[in-house]
Structures are given as structure tokens and as C-alpha cells.
Design a protein that fits this description.
This protein has five helices and four strands; from the N terminus they run H-H-E-H-E-H-H-E-E. The chain is of the alpha+beta class and about 160 residues long. It has two domains: about 45 residues, no CATH class; about 110 residues, Vaccinia Virus protein VP39 (Rossmann fold, 3-Layer(aba) Sandwich), CATH 3.40.50.150. Strands 1-2-4-3 form a four-stranded mixed β-sheet. The chain is globular and about 55 Å long. Bound molecules: S-adenosylmethionine. The site of S-adenosylmethionine (SAM) has 9 residues, from helix 2.
Length: about 160
């Protein structure tokens, strides 16, 4: 395979990020095409520390924020905040740590996330991250899947609707 990249080139591309995000975008595009939904979706690869597409209705971050420490988590949310229009929402989907000392899957997952410097968070902690990123936490919706959807809008937005 004369055109195949060497191990060193692959590692360089991996740490540069471009190859990883492009590969994810390519596979996603193929999956969407297989479902016949290409006319309704646009797949954009990129680095969420730099930019995300602007003016979307919703910025869905599922199991993304829990990968990161607070400073990086705030950066990702702030990048979304900067891309958001007046009606946009950010939807963070995570296992939220419940109050109290009862066992919960989120608490167990929190121990695992220590290995990658990530963490699970309480609703209050998400509220603080949102505030630092210029967002207001408007509600948290539990689901039967165990995860909750934490909704945020731009702070200062008038007439926040339920
Ligand atoms: C724990 S996975 C969650 C994947 C998916 N959202 C889900 O719920 O199954 C975290 C995702 O963040 C993506 N990611 C990590 N760093 C990124 C970056 N700088 N820009 C864009 N995506 C990134 C990874 O490619 C990975 O798909």
C-alpha cells in the first residue's frame, strides 16, 4: 500500500485533530445518506474549541461536557454561546449527579471519568458552567434512559419560554 500513511503520520494527524474530526464527519454523512436524510442535514467536521456552525436551533452535546475539566467545558459552551442566535438552545445530555447520598449510576461514572480528567456534575454545577459561558440554565429534563437533558439559553435573552 504505497499511499498508506506511516504510523508516525497517523499519530501526527491524530494529535492535530483534523483527521479524527474529518473521519467522524465522513462516517456520519454516510449514515445519514443511508437513512435518506441527506436533504435535511448538513454535516460539518471541526474543533469545538474553535467554532461550531452558527444559528442552529439546538446545540446538542451528548456525553461531551463530562469528558472535560471545568475550564475546557466552559470554553466549549462559550463557543456554542457565540454561535447561538436569539432562539437557539444548548442541550447538554449527561448523567446528572442527584443530591443526597443515595447510590446512582452518575456517581459510579464520575469515578471512571477521573481517569480522563473528566467528571459528572450536579445540576447546580452545570448552572455555574452555563453562567460562566454566558448561558442561563432554563430547565433539566430527566429521561427514562437515565441521562437528563440540561437546557440553556443565552443569558439576557428576553422572554424565555418553557
Ligand atoms: C464521549 S464521546 C461522545 C460521542 C457522542 N456524542 C455520543 O454521545 O455517543 C465524545 C466525542 O467528542 C468528540 N470530540 C473530542 N474532542 C473534540 C473536538 N476538539 N472537537 C470536536 N469533537 C471532539 C469525540 O470525537 C467524541 O465523538
Amino acid at each position: 500500500m504505497p499511499d498508506a500513511p506511516s504510523g508516525k503520520q497517523l499519530l501526527q494527524q491524530f494529535f492535530a485533530g483534523s483527521w479524527v474530526t474529518q473521519a467522524v464527519a465522513d462516517r456520519t454523512r454516510a449514515s445519514i445518506a443511508a437513512l435518506g436524510l441527506s436533504g435535511r442535514c448538513r454535516v460539518v467536521g471541526g474543533d469545538f474549541f474553535s467554532s461550531v456552525p452558527s444559528g442552529a436551533d439546538a446545540y446538542v452535546l451528548r456525553h461531551v461536557i463530562h469528558d472535560w475539566r471545568d475550564p475546557e467545558a466552559v470554553t466549549i459552551l462559550r463557543v456554542c454561546r457565540e454561535a447561538m442566535g436569539p432562539q437557539s438552545k444548548v442541550l447538554v445530555i449527561e448523567n446528572i449527579i442527584p443530591p443526597g447520598n443515595e447510590p446512582s449510576f452518575g456517581k459510579w461514572l464520575d469515578l471512571m471519568m477521573l481517569l480522563v480528567e473528566g467528571r459528572e456534575r450536579t445540576e447546580e454545577e452545570y448552572g455555574r458552567l452555563f453562567a460562566e459561558a454566558g448561558l442561563v440554565l432554563t430547565r433539566m429534563v430527566p429521561t427514562t434512559a437515565g441521562v437528563s437533558v440540561v437546557e440553556g439559553v443565552c443569558s439576557g435573552r428576553q422572554g424565555i419560554e418553557e
